[in-house]
Specification:
alpha+beta, seven-stranded mixed β-sheet, 31 strands, binds ligand ANZ, binds zinc ion
Length: 813
Amino acid sequence: MKRYNPKEIEPKWRKVWKEAGLDKTPEKPGKDKFYCLVMFPYPSGNLHVGHWYNFGPADTVARFHRMTGKKVMHPIGYDSFGLPAENAAIKHNIPPAQWTQSNMKSMTKQLQNIGAMYDYDKMIATSDPDYYRWTQWLFLKLYENGLAYRKEAPVNWCPSCQTVLANEQVVGHDNHCERCEHIVEQKMLKQWYFKITDYTERLLSDAEGLDWPERVQTMQRNWIGQSIGAEIDFGIEGHDDGLKVFTTRPDTLFGATYMVLAPEHPIVEQIATKSQLRQVKQYIKETEGKTELDRKQDEKEKTGVFTGAHAINPVNNEKIPIWIADYVLMNYGTGAIMAVPSNDERDWEFAKKFDLGVVEVVKDHEKQDPREFGIEGQMINSGKYDGMQSEQAREEILKDLESDGNATEKVNYKLRDWLISRQRYWGAPIPIVYCDNCGEVPVPLDDLPVKLPEDVEFKPTGKSPLSELDGFVNTACPKCGGKAKRETDTMDTFVDSSWYYLRYPNTKYEEGPFDPEAVAQWNQVDHYIGGIEHAILHLLYSRFITKVLHDYADLPFEEPFKKLTNQGIILGPDGLKMSKSKGNVVDPDKQVASYGTDSLRLYLMFMGPYEQGGPYNMTGITGTRRFIDRVWTLVDEFVDSEAGEGKDLSDVDLLTSTHKTIKKVTGDLQRISFNTAISALMQQVNRLNAVKSENGYSHRVQWQEALDALVLLLAPMAPHVAEEMWHMLGHDESVHIQSWPVWDDELVKEELVTIVVQVNGKVRANIEMLAGVSNEDMVKQAQKDEKIQKYLKDGEVIKTITVPEKLVNFVVK
Ligand code: ANZ
Ligand code: ZN
């Protein structure tokens, strides 16, 4: 009898693995390469349950692929620049570099506890000069190609973080800072931008080929915000020049009863009549104090002023009044709209308030509520277009206007350029110098890195801390040698993380940010695992930077991450978000101390579907620990027992259930369905226990095979205890370099069921499918069948009837 003691075996095996170099990345992986990546952590100083939930299961994925014969790279590092280090420095009076260093040290120790097979030789930290040197190189690459520029514009300002923020970092209906939750203000400032808008179409279309969760794809699509419409020319009464509006609904032109310009529109003061000019100017001034974010709030009471001028509607030459109002934004479309109060909610509210006309032009016969907007239907009050469907009228009106030269089709996007400069200290300095003679001059590549000085005062004053350091600021112009000043803003930390995955294949490379040969071997990332909070920011930026490097630095691919999985969020035992103030934070270290790493890893994978997360149940881990104990007992008793005990085993099929389990667990791990894989293993243990109580361990060969398989299947999920049991079962090599078990088709055969497929009640095919097939899959497979396709292709399926695991009937018209 041997006792299961995780405290003893876990450190033991970790040491053995390290000494054997099991965690080293293969040099030339060839076509079997598998690049498994977790989103690198911020060095906050403590590895929390959320990290475990990301890293433990990701390690299972890496180990599983290794056993299936893949050459795996599974690296980790730190996203170590950023505000918290600076805030901690202010609070505790220690330099950010020191705070970050000591946190990384303690977290690396904690990381080992997870038992993940990271190649620690490949650690990177974005605050390391050997790393940020290349972040600066990246900046210069964009600059050189016209993709990094400086402009004065209204920007989001967080008064608490004392820095500007990218649009992507302003969240919620109230527009708060994603970091500190303060409401964001707007300021006019000169800032650095990356021209992500040059890549809009490619960011949209290339996403289609990615194996990413649908909700992330949707979030990115919405953020990019493609809008297909037209620009239409209106004349202005008494002026030669006209005005362009952007609309997605040219079909509603007959319902345009007034026009609205953004108050900043350059034409406003030219067209405003004498009697209205004072009021107009007053309103423009009022608008200046408002943020774009405020102006976009639909719930807000509408305001505006009449300019006194009139526009001429090109479809009917009618005169309509031109207003200015802050709900029209200058930086979208043309900064001018035709207002259709009958079919646009904001226009309707505005018209109601200022008593402007409403003309209904689209009639939806099913419309119940008069306050339904954006409707499609039959055209009315629209001259020769009356009676047409609005979708068709849209095309016809546009065609007619185009042939008169009064309209062009136009696609607009919501995406704006990425604001990357920050007025904070702990980040990569922007490698630009301002010279009195030469103006803006990029720092030559050979002079990189522009080192971040360490002796800095941290008072967040809204001015970059670096600007207070004369030794840093004053420099010689790289071009003319004259007096020059350095840029003192640093880069958004999302620039650091936009390219880090390219550094891992060769972290020591000296000639550029990435080693082209190593990158060609390893990239792209095959499976990227991390939090949904990065759905837009980090993932969109990485995709953009990858495309830039493809275009200007010979990177051989255009998308960084082939497959993406977002783990869910672990809540406190009370079902609420974990937070210190609520006292519901689960400390993984304590759970490990009581039950062992393997039990915690298993619990996290067993608690529910991985992409869902959920509340942490404090006693849940006792269940997975008990499961390990049961496996242990079977193995331990088996090796202690002798042949010939118990009854004859010929009719007890240990092998059938073993092979079914292999098949189930393999499929589940491929689908990242850890919880069902573990539950299949639990069922198998129940069956083994039943066989044992009936027959003992008499059939040695079958038992050995069954237990070997069980331990192999468990190895990626509970790596330490699996290793121990593998050795108990008489093997000398590590379980982690064994081949993944394969099932024998003969033994799992009866798992097929025959599905009858009918079209309009007539049997048209019989298709074999796996038992347990879902209704949805059953329908999908039936649709793919050649015979069935013949019957479906000419009609429209108006109904699909299913009987689980038996029948699909397509009703076709
Ligand atoms: C007439 C109309 C009729 C409109 C109707 C909508 C519905 P998206 O999808 O967001 O692109 N618009 C255009 N430029 C604007 C600006 N700078 N500021 C505020 N609103 C602007 O929406 C396009 C629609 O938003 C455009 O189509 C325009 O209103 C408005 F039944 O034109 B529409
Ligand atoms: Zn100069």
